[in-house]
Amino acid sequence: MRSAKVLFRGEQAGILLQDDNGAFEFHYHKQWVEDSSKPPISLTLPKTIETYQSEYLFPFFYNMLPEGSNKQVVCHLNRIDRNDYFGLLLTIAKSDTIGAVTIIKIEK
Predict the structure, then answer these.
(1) Residue 72 placed within a domain
(2) Percent of the chain at pLDDT above 70?
(3) Which of 6, 35, 94, 97 shows a CA-CA span of 20 to 30 A to 62?
(4) What residues does the HipA N-terminal subdomain domain cover (predicted)?
(5) Contact 4, 108 (CB under 8 A)
């Protein structure tokens, strides 16, 4: 299992997980959900205590990934399989994002 902190403007909003079977989970921290001043990280992932589950990387996170030749270069330089979307997300979304969300790998 791989896991990452999901930060919104530098504050930890939740956790993104990839299970050993390849499925994904995302859940908000309880404090984030209960604080009405904190927004959802995406309109497609409204604030809730329930865990979101998907067989594929959630579209919000998938859309943070590079495409085309940029993806090829990042994968080659970092020795990441082109189909390892979670690994690619962990590599590029820790600092190189357009929006307010960053992704930080949780070290075990």
Answers:
(1) no
(2) 99
(3) 35
(4) 5-103
(5) no
| Residue 24 pLDDT level (bands cut at 50, 70, 90) | very high
21 is in which domain, residue-wise?
2-64+93-105
- Which helix (H) or strand (E) segment is 69 a member of? helix 68-78
Question: Is the CB of residue 92 less than 8 Å from the CB of residue 64?
Answer: yes
| Cβ–Cβ < 8 Å for 46, 40 | yes
pTM for the full model?
A: 0.89
Helices (H) and strands (E) in the chain, counts: 4, 5
The answer as to whether 24 is a domain residue is yes
Is the CB of residue 82 less than 8 Å from the CB of residue 68? no
Q: Looking at residues 11-20, what average pLDDT do you find?
A: 96
SS3 27: strand
